[in-house]
Design brief:
The complex is a heterodimer.
Chain A: H1 5-14, H2 26-30, H3 41-50, H4 53-57, H5 61-64, H6 70-74, H7 81-94, H8 102-118, H9 123-134, H10 141-152, H11 166-178
Helix pairs in contact in A: 1-7, 8-9, 8-11
Chain B: E1 4-9, H1 21-29, E2 34-40, H2 46-59, E3 63-68, H3 71-84, E4 92-96, H4 98-102, H5 109-128, E5 136-138, E6 144-147, H6 151-162, E7 167-170, H7 192-206, E8 210-213, E9 216-224, E10 227-234, E11 243-247, E12 249-252, E13 257-258, E14 275-277, H8 278-285, E15 302-306, H9 325-339, E16 344-349, H10 359-368, E17 373-376, E18 381-385, E19 388-395, E20 400-406, E21 408-411, E22 415-416, H11 421-428, E23 455-457, H12 467-485, E24 490-492, E25 497-499, H13 509-513, E26 519-522, E27 527-530, H14 540-544, E28 550-552, H15 557-567
Parallel strand pairs in B: 1-2, 1-3, 3-4, 6-7, 6-12, 7-8, 12-23, 14-21, 15-16, 15-21, 16-17
Antiparallel strand pairs in B: 5-24, 9-10, 10-11, 13-22, 18-19, 19-20, 25-28, 26-27
Helix pairs in contact in B: 1-5, 2-3, 5-15, 6-7, 6-12, 8-9, 9-10
Classes of the chains: A mainly alpha, B alpha/beta.
Amino acid sequence: MLDVTLQGRVNELAHETIQLCYHCHKCTAGCPVENEMTFGPDIILRMVQLGQKQETLSSPDIWLCAGCETCGTRCPNDIDIAHVMDALRQIAVAEGVKPAVPNVKRFHDIFLYVVGLTGEMHEAGLMGAYELLSGDLFKDPSIMALAANLFIKGKVPVLPQLSKNRSRVQRVIEQSRQVK
Amino acid sequence: MRKVGVFICHCGINIAGTVDVDKVAEDIQSYPGVAFATTYKYTCSDPGQQIIKDAIQQHGLDGVIVAACSPAMHETTFRRTAAAAGMNPYLLECANIREQCSWVHQNDKGRATEKALLTIQSMVEKVKRNEALDPLSLPLTKKALVIGGGIAGITAALDIADAGYPVILVEKGEHLGGKMADLSGTYLNFAAALDLLTRRIDRVLQHPNIQVITGAEVVQVDGYVGNFRATVVQGTRDPGLGNTYDVGAVIAATGYGRYPQSKLPEYGGGTIPDVIDGLTFEAMLAPGAKIQRPSDGKTPKEVVFVQCAGSRDPEHGVPYCSKVCCMYTAKQAVLFKERVPHGQAYVFYIDIRSAGKGYDEYVQRAMTDYRALYLRGKVSKIFQDGNKVIVWGSDTLSNRQVEIAADLVVLATPMAAPEGAKELAQRLHISTNADGFYNEAHPKLRPVESLTAGIFLAGTGQGPKDIPETVAQASAAAAKVMQLFSRDEMKAEPTIAQVIPELCAACGLCVKACPYGARQVDEILQVATVNPALCQACGACAAACPNKASVVRNWTPTQILFMADVLV
């Protein structure tokens, strides 16, 4: 019922010591996406401490975390909770747990695909692919207006620039996929 | 005829803003017996006191009234001033024209002025009849009795003995060391403290100034500060067979009592063999011992520690926090993990109370380095299931019910009042609180004294505390004893009850009236007596005495009648 092994695995992946958390709630109090979450950062830490693996890994919270690091910056025990959320996402993917917010996982995948392909960031490609694959295409007209503006001002080049180091970037991505 | 000087204080505008001080000074000048009267802005200031001194010498005053604040405020100050000018200090009185006059009559200045004048006039009548007194001098036995041979008693005894005074150390059990000797080690510095205890015990046993009496109890204490007589009985409870010891001070260092586990049936206390208390687990952690389940002798792998098992639980009769459990539970979890590396410790807690230097860091290390899993919530039920002990609890941090199949459960049971504390308190004329712990004289400013002069407190008999606090309190109590013994004699206020033998019928009403046990009837002389060390000058005997034979010095019925005559 209580399983302390999950805590050990997360600590190892995230290079953190989450037992230090004394649940002051400061992280959750400042989290910008907390109102979208089911539990909030400190309860997620508690669930990891107690080893409630399935519930944690299938929660939307680990995918909703924007990685803004407000929590980690404010934590009195210096726990970088964004790292912990990353570790939980890695474990979820490795164990084939269906992501509770599939589009976030999709975005990560597209990002890596685009960067792997071109060797550097290509916003138009990333956004285009995401809009098509996420099923959110044209859902939010304001985003389209913003995109149009960026195109007109030349901030988002239509064609990608190919990095001369793209094979090395590809290798980095491949290697990171091997890490469990 | 007395020559009385009257010094009227403005106290800034505190008095002068309401009372017409100049008019009072002018009017009192002509009152019979008054030789001198003046006013000053702040009489308690250095120049104000100088005015009193000068007037005493210039006018040959043999009575002084300072009309100012309450005597509780500055009577001592002004009596010292009078003594410095060569006048007997007991011929000085304070007339309270501030708290009981100017402050409460601010809306009626005319009548406040009248009241101030009357108050001073009545005090003039008193002072005219005051006796010139000298402080009492009481004998002092420079020998201490320490009750209890735990770390508190040992520390206090050594401190007093090292200062050169003899100590009688009475221990109920057969050996010195108390509850500390039952510990496997202490938190923060595990081994060093017990080694130190052993060395301290050796020092006590070899100390030329300490007489150790083990297997003994203090069955009777008579007398008063500086002059107690204690009866100590070894082995038997017949006070007739005891030895008496004359001592000047007593330190009660009796330690705490063990809370019976049987009072915790919902936790299987006393019924499930693998549910034990903290001190039982200490024995398993002791050097040379093994951590094993009482039921089958196997090494436990999953151990659940339950903090506040009784403490902070009014329903279990223990509303207080036992203060040491958070820390010793962390220590036990650490030691368990060290001895059983594959084991897992779980700790249920309500709050972690780890106030102290390095204490919180220690608890944190139990969580980080020793992987103890802390669960915030009270355990609801513990029961046997096969060879496992099932613990039902709650984790309030995640709002989840928790169930652990444990091999061993350690209950952090409360520090209870020591057995026999109430009886000993009665013998020492000190009080206990609702939980049975000895009461200190003041919870903040007099934490090692009891309300009975000469009886001091040290250690957990006064309330739950850990070893460093106990040692500090024991040394403080010892310092209080040394402070008492550093005098050649004991000075006491002479303004206490007195018996006029010609008027006394030895009826004994004063004995019943006295709340301090200071009155007795001398059966041979057939006269009531006053024990000057115990009398607190409350006047209860004077009020009770039908013959007016009992009087409080300088508060005689004659004085009071003359004062009343002025006022009504």
